[in-house]
Every structure is written in C-alpha cells, then in structure tokens.
Amino acid sequence: MFACSILRTTVKKVPAINAIRLLSFDAAKQPKIRIGSKAPNFEAPSTVGKLNFYNYLGDSWGILFSHPADFTPVCTTELGAFAAKKPEFDARNVKLLGLSVDPLERHSKWVGDIEDISLGGKKFNFPIVSDSTKQVAYLYDMLTEDNFKKITSGPVTTIRSVFIVDPKKTVRLIMTYPPSVGRNTDEVLRVVDSLQVGDKLHVVTGVNWKKGDDVIIPPSLSNEDAKAKFGSFKVVKPYLRYTSPGKN
C-alpha cells in the first residue's frame, strides 16, 4: 500500500540524472541531503497534474517546502504568504513548490480555504504535491524520528522543511522547523537574494544582510585583486572588507 513507485523518466537538460528509484524506506539507504548535494528528482501528483521536479524547475531556482497536513492553521497561513509573495520570487527566477502527504483531493479543497483566508479571493498560484506514498518525505528526510519509525505502518505528518535548489539542481540551503513553528517568508526571500548576489559577484553577506546592503569581499581575494574587481571598498579589518553590490 505504501510502497514507492519506481521512476525511470530521463529528465531533459539534466541527462546524466534520472528520477530516483526507490525500493524501500530503509533508513540505512536513505539519501543524505546536504548543502551541495544534488537535489533528488521525483515524480508525484500535484494540484497542476503529475509533476516531475526537474522538469518543473527547468532552468529556474526552486523552493521545495513541506507541510504537516492540509487544513491546519499554520500551514494555511504559510502557503497564503508564499502565494502573496510569488511575484517577488518570480522576479528572481524562483519557482515555488509545496508538499504534504495528504491526498490530492484534500489539496484541491484546501486551496479554496487559502484563497479565502490569505489571498482575498485571488487564485492560488503554485503547485502543491500530494506525497501520499511518502516517497518525497523519505527522499528529503522530512519526518520526525517518531514518524519515520511508522512510515510503513500508518499515517505520518511531515515537518516544516525548506530546500532552496539552484538551476543546476544543487541544494543551496536547508531549513528545518518543528511542526509547531511557522516559517518566515521574508527570510527565505532574503536567502535567495544572498545566494544570487553571491553567485554573481563571488561575495558573501553578513548578519541580517538584505538586498541592496554592502556585501563582504572574501579574504581569499587580495586587496589588489579586490580593487581591480570592485573598485572602492571599505576595510574594517584585513579579513573584513565591504563593497557595494550596486557598483558591480
């Protein structure tokens, strides 16, 4: 009943990586997802039809985030907040994808509540995956210890996981919240901005950084090379130098 389906689809634009083939929920064989890991591909039903994760992302960044269950108060506020901010994610070439282990028909009904409560009647605007087989929850380790122990024997709920994936399908950020704590959508957006400016300029960002703030020049770059690349910069300590991203 809860056996995972076998996926054999070859994904366009990522020819070397096939959709993951799952044979069991064996903890010893569970993929280890770390920053820098290749995000596992999967196929699952969603509110927009059958969805292949890699095909859905295409050349975009992606945010995959899980929810404990449909028709729960915190999840409803979260999905509404992400939907309201979707134009900001679109502007950064980021696609959103929600997930819970509830059946697809519950997702479709739940979307109506989200539209009423959080979107002022506007249409919900990104897919929600129905992971009723629990294959994605297993692949991305979206379960508490107790729920993992009963993954093959009964209903489970997913924790609040967030994965930011870049266009190369590399995992760039992992955030995991307990089921009782809602996420901060502004923080997710801030991290996307930091990752994208870092990739573009080969810089890093300091505490509480937000888009438009000065960025930090890595210590691996000499002052001479930093001047050639960035022009002016401010030296606080030999290892802490700031420059404006607006100049580059």
TrEMBL record:
Superkingdom assignment: Eukaryota
GO cellular component assignments: cytosol; mitochondrion
Coiled coil: none
Keywords, ordered alphabetically: Antioxidant, Oxidoreductase, Peroxidase, Redox-active center
Record has Metal-binding as a keyword: no
Positions annotated as active site in the UniProt record: 75 (cysteine sulfenic acid (-soh) intermediate)
UniProt xrefs under InterPro entries: AhpC/TSA (IPR000866), Peroxiredoxin (IPR050217), Peroxiredoxin_AhpC-typ (IPR024706), Peroxiredoxin_C (IPR019479), PRX_1cys (IPR045020), Thioredoxin-like_sf (IPR036249), Thioredoxin_domain (IPR013766)
GO MF, one example: thioredoxin peroxidase activity
Domain Thioredoxin: 33-197
GO biological process: cell redox homeostasis; cellular response to stress; hydrogen peroxide catabolic process; response to oxidative stress
Family according to the record: Belongs to the peroxiredoxin family. AhpC/Prx1 subfamily.
Its job: Thiol-specific peroxidase that catalyzes the reduction of hydrogen peroxide and organic hydroperoxides to water and alcohols, respectively.
Name of the protein described by the UniProt record: DEBR0S1_21176g1_1
UniProt source species: Dekkera bruxellensis (Brettanomyces custersii)
